[in-house]
Specification:
The complex is a heterodimer of chains A (117) and B (110). In chain A, 0% of the residues lie in helices and 50% in strands. By secondary structure, chain A is an all-beta fold. Chain A starts with a strand and ends with a strand. Chain B is mainly β. Helices cover 0% and strands 59% of the residues of chain B. Chain B is built from no helices and eleven strands. In chain B, strand 4 and strand 5 form a beta hairpin. The chains are: A mainly beta (117), B mainly beta (110). At the A-B interface, strand 5, strand 9 and strand 10 of A face strand 4, strand 5, strand 9 and strand 10 of B.
Chain lengths: 117, 110
Protein backbone atom coordinates (compact mmCIF):
# COMPACT_ATOMS: atom_id res chain seq x y z
CA UNK A 1 0.00 0.00 0.00
CA UNK A 2 0.98 3.63 -0.36
CA UNK A 3 0.86 6.24 2.39
CA UNK A 4 0.31 9.77 1.16
CA UNK A 5 0.72 13.00 3.08
CA UNK A 6 -0.30 16.47 2.06
CA UNK A 7 0.73 19.88 3.29
CA UNK A 8 -0.88 22.07 4.37
CA UNK A 9 -3.90 20.24 5.71
CA UNK A 10 -5.88 23.46 5.52
CA UNK A 11 -5.38 27.11 4.80
CA UNK A 12 -7.28 30.36 4.58
CA UNK A 13 -6.01 32.65 1.86
CA UNK A 14 -6.74 36.07 0.49
CA UNK A 15 -8.10 36.66 -2.97
CA UNK A 16 -5.38 37.16 -5.58
CA UNK A 17 -2.70 35.19 -3.76
CA UNK A 18 -1.32 31.74 -4.57
CA UNK A 19 -0.98 28.57 -2.52
CA UNK A 20 1.27 25.60 -3.18
CA UNK A 21 0.10 22.21 -1.95
CA UNK A 22 2.62 19.45 -1.44
CA UNK A 23 2.01 15.74 -1.87
CA UNK A 24 4.50 13.19 -0.54
CA UNK A 25 4.27 9.42 -1.12
CA UNK A 26 6.16 6.82 0.88
CA UNK A 27 7.00 4.76 -2.22
CA UNK A 28 7.93 5.44 -5.81
CA UNK A 29 4.96 5.75 -8.13
CA UNK A 30 4.66 6.60 -11.78
CA UNK A 31 1.28 8.27 -11.86
CA UNK A 32 0.05 10.96 -9.49
CA UNK A 33 -3.26 12.75 -9.77
CA UNK A 34 -4.67 15.98 -8.43
CA UNK A 35 -8.38 16.31 -7.71
CA UNK A 36 -10.71 19.00 -6.50
CA UNK A 37 -13.71 18.16 -4.33
CA UNK A 38 -16.24 20.86 -3.63
CA UNK A 39 -18.75 20.40 -0.81
CA UNK A 40 -21.42 17.87 -1.70
CA UNK A 41 -19.96 17.32 -5.14
CA UNK A 42 -18.02 14.60 -6.85
CA UNK A 43 -14.27 14.39 -7.24
CA UNK A 44 -13.08 16.30 -10.29
CA UNK A 45 -9.74 15.41 -11.82
CA UNK A 46 -7.57 18.48 -12.36
CA UNK A 47 -4.51 16.87 -13.90
CA UNK A 48 -2.31 13.81 -14.12
CA UNK A 49 1.35 14.26 -13.22
CA UNK A 50 3.89 11.72 -14.41
CA UNK A 51 7.51 12.13 -13.45
CA UNK A 52 9.65 13.41 -16.28
CA UNK A 53 6.85 14.83 -18.38
CA UNK A 54 4.48 17.76 -18.41
CA UNK A 55 1.27 17.36 -16.47
CA UNK A 56 -1.83 16.55 -18.47
CA UNK A 57 -4.76 18.82 -17.62
CA UNK A 58 -8.43 17.99 -17.86
CA UNK A 59 -10.93 20.13 -19.66
CA UNK A 60 -11.59 23.31 -17.71
CA UNK A 61 -8.22 23.38 -15.97
CA UNK A 62 -5.17 25.22 -17.29
CA UNK A 63 -1.52 25.24 -16.38
CA UNK A 64 -1.42 28.98 -15.70
CA UNK A 65 -4.02 28.60 -12.98
CA UNK A 66 -2.89 25.23 -11.60
CA UNK A 67 0.82 24.73 -12.27
CA UNK A 68 2.07 21.32 -11.21
CA UNK A 69 5.56 20.06 -10.51
CA UNK A 70 6.69 16.44 -10.35
CA UNK A 71 10.40 16.50 -9.61
CA UNK A 72 10.71 12.83 -8.62
CA UNK A 73 8.76 9.60 -8.14
CA UNK A 74 7.61 10.38 -4.59
CA UNK A 75 6.67 14.06 -4.65
CA UNK A 76 4.43 16.55 -6.44
CA UNK A 77 3.11 20.04 -5.89
CA UNK A 78 -0.02 21.78 -7.10
CA UNK A 79 -0.20 25.57 -7.03
CA UNK A 80 -3.53 27.35 -7.03
CA UNK A 81 -2.73 30.73 -8.55
CA UNK A 82 -4.44 34.09 -8.35
CA UNK A 83 -7.09 32.62 -6.10
CA UNK A 84 -10.72 33.64 -5.96
CA UNK A 85 -13.47 32.47 -3.59
CA UNK A 86 -14.56 29.99 -6.29
CA UNK A 87 -11.30 28.11 -5.68
CA UNK A 88 -12.41 27.26 -2.14
CA UNK A 89 -12.44 23.49 -2.12
CA UNK A 90 -10.68 20.38 -0.91
CA UNK A 91 -7.68 19.46 -3.05
CA UNK A 92 -6.63 15.82 -3.05
CA UNK A 93 -3.67 14.05 -4.52
CA UNK A 94 -3.76 10.36 -5.33
CA UNK A 95 -1.51 7.69 -6.81
CA UNK A 96 -2.08 4.53 -8.79
CA UNK A 97 -3.32 1.72 -6.61
CA UNK A 98 -1.04 -1.07 -7.69
CA UNK A 99 -1.59 -3.91 -5.29
CA UNK A 100 -5.26 -3.11 -4.92
CA UNK A 101 -7.71 -4.54 -7.43
CA UNK A 102 -5.90 -2.81 -10.27
CA UNK A 103 -8.01 -1.25 -12.99
CA UNK A 104 -7.39 2.36 -12.08
CA UNK A 105 -7.85 2.01 -8.33
CA UNK A 106 -6.12 4.73 -6.37
CA UNK A 107 -4.68 5.65 -3.00
CA UNK A 108 -5.66 9.13 -1.85
CA UNK A 109 -4.01 11.65 0.40
CA UNK A 110 -5.93 13.27 3.27
CA UNK A 111 -6.66 16.41 1.28
CA UNK A 112 -6.01 20.13 1.70
CA UNK A 113 -8.99 22.25 2.66
CA UNK A 114 -8.63 25.66 1.05
CA UNK A 115 -10.78 28.67 1.89
CA UNK A 116 -10.35 31.84 -0.15
CA UNK A 117 -11.70 35.06 1.30
CA UNK B 1 -22.12 12.96 -21.43
CA UNK B 2 -20.98 10.10 -19.26
CA UNK B 3 -22.39 10.35 -15.80
CA UNK B 4 -22.55 8.53 -12.47
CA UNK B 5 -25.35 9.31 -10.07
CA UNK B 6 -25.68 8.42 -6.42
CA UNK B 7 -28.41 9.31 -3.95
CA UNK B 8 -27.61 12.78 -2.70
CA UNK B 9 -29.77 12.39 0.37
CA UNK B 10 -28.25 10.85 3.45
CA UNK B 11 -29.24 7.27 4.18
CA UNK B 12 -30.19 6.55 7.79
CA UNK B 13 -30.04 2.92 8.83
CA UNK B 14 -30.56 1.24 12.17
CA UNK B 15 -27.54 -0.60 13.55
CA UNK B 16 -27.59 -4.27 12.65
CA UNK B 17 -29.61 -3.79 9.48
CA UNK B 18 -28.34 -3.99 5.92
CA UNK B 19 -27.49 -0.70 4.24
CA UNK B 20 -27.87 -0.56 0.45
CA UNK B 21 -26.40 2.24 -1.62
CA UNK B 22 -27.08 2.79 -5.31
CA UNK B 23 -24.84 3.90 -8.17
CA UNK B 24 -26.43 4.52 -11.58
CA UNK B 25 -24.47 5.25 -14.73
CA UNK B 26 -25.64 6.80 -17.98
CA UNK B 27 -24.35 7.27 -21.51
CA UNK B 28 -21.60 4.70 -21.31
CA UNK B 29 -20.89 1.10 -20.49
CA UNK B 30 -18.15 0.86 -17.86
CA UNK B 31 -15.89 -2.14 -17.80
CA UNK B 32 -15.95 -1.94 -14.00
CA UNK B 33 -17.23 0.11 -11.09
CA UNK B 34 -15.38 0.77 -7.88
CA UNK B 35 -16.49 1.85 -4.43
CA UNK B 36 -14.63 4.01 -1.93
CA UNK B 37 -15.30 5.15 1.60
CA UNK B 38 -14.62 8.75 2.64
CA UNK B 39 -14.62 9.97 6.21
CA UNK B 40 -14.82 13.70 7.05
CA UNK B 41 -11.47 15.40 6.57
CA UNK B 42 -9.93 12.38 4.90
CA UNK B 43 -9.32 11.16 1.38
CA UNK B 44 -11.33 8.30 -0.13
CA UNK B 45 -10.27 4.74 0.68
CA UNK B 46 -10.74 1.96 -1.85
CA UNK B 47 -13.17 -0.79 -0.83
CA UNK B 48 -14.23 -2.96 -3.75
CA UNK B 49 -14.10 -3.15 -7.52
CA UNK B 50 -16.52 -5.16 -9.66
CA UNK B 51 -16.10 -5.85 -13.36
CA UNK B 52 -18.88 -5.97 -15.92
CA UNK B 53 -18.67 -9.74 -16.23
CA UNK B 54 -19.02 -10.20 -12.47
CA UNK B 55 -22.49 -10.21 -11.00
CA UNK B 56 -21.43 -9.98 -7.41
CA UNK B 57 -18.35 -9.51 -5.28
CA UNK B 58 -17.96 -9.81 -1.51
CA UNK B 59 -15.48 -8.69 1.10
CA UNK B 60 -16.33 -9.45 4.71
CA UNK B 61 -19.60 -7.57 5.41
CA UNK B 62 -19.51 -5.76 2.08
CA UNK B 63 -21.18 -6.88 -1.12
CA UNK B 64 -21.27 -5.19 -4.51
CA UNK B 65 -23.46 -6.11 -7.47
CA UNK B 66 -23.30 -4.98 -11.08
CA UNK B 67 -26.41 -5.04 -13.28
CA UNK B 68 -25.60 -4.01 -16.84
CA UNK B 69 -29.26 -4.17 -17.81
CA UNK B 70 -30.32 -1.70 -15.15
CA UNK B 71 -27.03 0.22 -15.57
CA UNK B 72 -26.59 0.06 -11.85
CA UNK B 73 -24.31 -1.08 -9.06
CA UNK B 74 -25.56 -1.74 -5.56
CA UNK B 75 -23.30 -1.61 -2.51
CA UNK B 76 -24.48 -3.49 0.57
CA UNK B 77 -23.18 -3.41 4.13
CA UNK B 78 -24.65 -6.21 6.21
CA UNK B 79 -24.89 -6.13 10.00
CA UNK B 80 -24.19 -2.41 9.84
CA UNK B 81 -22.37 -0.67 12.69
CA UNK B 82 -22.09 3.00 13.68
CA UNK B 83 -18.45 2.82 12.55
CA UNK B 84 -19.72 2.26 9.01
CA UNK B 85 -21.06 5.81 9.00
CA UNK B 86 -19.27 7.66 6.21
CA UNK B 87 -19.74 8.89 2.67
CA UNK B 88 -19.47 6.21 0.01
CA UNK B 89 -18.29 7.09 -3.49
CA UNK B 90 -18.80 5.19 -6.71
CA UNK B 91 -16.40 5.67 -9.62
CA UNK B 92 -15.51 4.27 -12.99
CA UNK B 93 -13.43 4.94 -16.07
CA UNK B 94 -10.31 3.85 -17.87
CA UNK B 95 -6.68 4.88 -17.93
CA UNK B 96 -7.30 6.63 -14.62
CA UNK B 97 -9.76 9.02 -16.26
CA UNK B 98 -12.33 8.27 -13.61
CA UNK B 99 -15.87 9.58 -13.41
CA UNK B 100 -17.13 9.87 -9.85
CA UNK B 101 -20.52 10.10 -8.24
CA UNK B 102 -21.05 12.76 -5.60
CA UNK B 103 -21.31 10.10 -2.92
CA UNK B 104 -24.01 9.02 -0.51
CA UNK B 105 -23.70 9.81 3.17
CA UNK B 106 -24.54 6.78 5.28
CA UNK B 107 -25.54 7.22 8.92
CA UNK B 108 -25.85 4.13 11.09
CA UNK B 109 -27.85 4.82 14.23
CA UNK B 110 -27.19 2.82 17.41
Amino acid sequence: SAVISQKPSRDICQRGTSLTIQCQVDSQVTMMFWYRQQPGQSLTLIATANQGSEATYESGFVIDKFPISRPNLTFSTLTVSNMSPEDSSIYLCSVEGLGLAGADTQYFGPGTRLTVL
Amino acid sequence: SQKIEQNSEALNIQEGKTATLTCNYTNYSPAYLQWYRQDPGRGPVFLLLIRENEKEKRKERLKVTFDTTLKQSLFHITASQPADSATYLCGSGSNYQLIWGAGTKLIIKP
